[in-house]
Design brief:
Four Helix Bundle (Hemerythrin (Met), subunit A)
Length: 241
């Protein structure tokens, strides 16, 4: 029983990995909404494995490494393929049918910088003890959720927002945010922290704003919520100076 209890978080992590692999598969099939849903499920599982590990007090080094390996697939490789296929879907069928004409698809290969920078971000996270209570740079699940929202937004006749050029810009900017040395607050509440602390007030602002945005514009709110999270984290940094 103890062995099973110890491995419950790891099983949830492996489920996260499975949904990451499914996301990649569906992106190849150009089922980008289903691919995005797989990433969103993976994000929920990624939250659950850590929460359950802390609840059961069964955190382990192998669990930490396994979590990163699953995350690079679900939140690094899968979003890269979604971006890449989104860029191709905007182009003509000639390029889609001749993927080996690298001179034509070269600009779109920049989508895979997301996977590369995600790997760097996750490796830094594993060795940086300063990221136990906060994040340095944008967490990979936040980037993945941002990308996962795009197929749904584009299906609502808002293609002018996420055209090829903007998708390339998103890939570059979001990748840089993964490794930039900006502290972003975590949602892990310290039991010794006052409920009315400045950080908790900012968390509350983000929560209320997120609920309002989601109610008003549904999944199209996700890019705005993540942008607000970054802005509030910068404000939190300024308040601490």
């Amino acid at each position: 029983m103890n062995v099973f209890k110890k491995n419950i978080p790891n099983l949830i992590t492996l489920l996260n990995l499975i949904f990451g692999l499914l996301a990649i598969f569906f992106s190849f099939e150009m089922q980008l909404k289903i691919s995005s849903i797989c990433i969103l499920i993976g994000a929920i599982l990624d939250f659950l494995d850590g929460a359950i590990a802390r609840l059961l007090n069964v955190s382990s080094e192998i669990g930490k490494q396994l979590d990163s390996m699953a995350d690079i697939v679900t939140f690094g490789v899968a979003p890269s393929f979604i971006l890449f296929n989104l860029m191709l879907s905007k182009y003509n069928e000639e390029i889609i049918n001749n993927l080996f004409e690298l001179n034509k698809i070269a600009p779109y290969l920049i989508a895979f910088i997301v996977a590369i920078f995600s790997a760097i971000r996750l490796a830094n996270f594993n060795i940086d003890i300063k990221q136990e209570k906060s994040f340095i740079g944008l967490p990979t699940p936040a980037l993945a959720i941002f990308v996962a929202s795009i197929p749904f937004i584009n299906s609502k006749n808002t293609n002018f927002i996420f055209n090829e050029e903007n998708l390339i810009f998103i890939a570059l900017i979001m990748s840089i945010l993964l490794i930039v040395k900006i502290p972003l607050f975590s949602f892990k509440i310290d039991i010794n922290e006052k409920l009315n602390s400045k950080l908790n007030i900012l968390r509350l602002i983000l929560l209320i704003s997120s609920c309002i945005l989601l109610f008003k514009i549904q999944i199209a709110a996700i890019p705005f919520i993540i942008t607000l999270y970054i802005i509030l984290s910068i404000i939190n940094n300024l308040l601490r100076i």
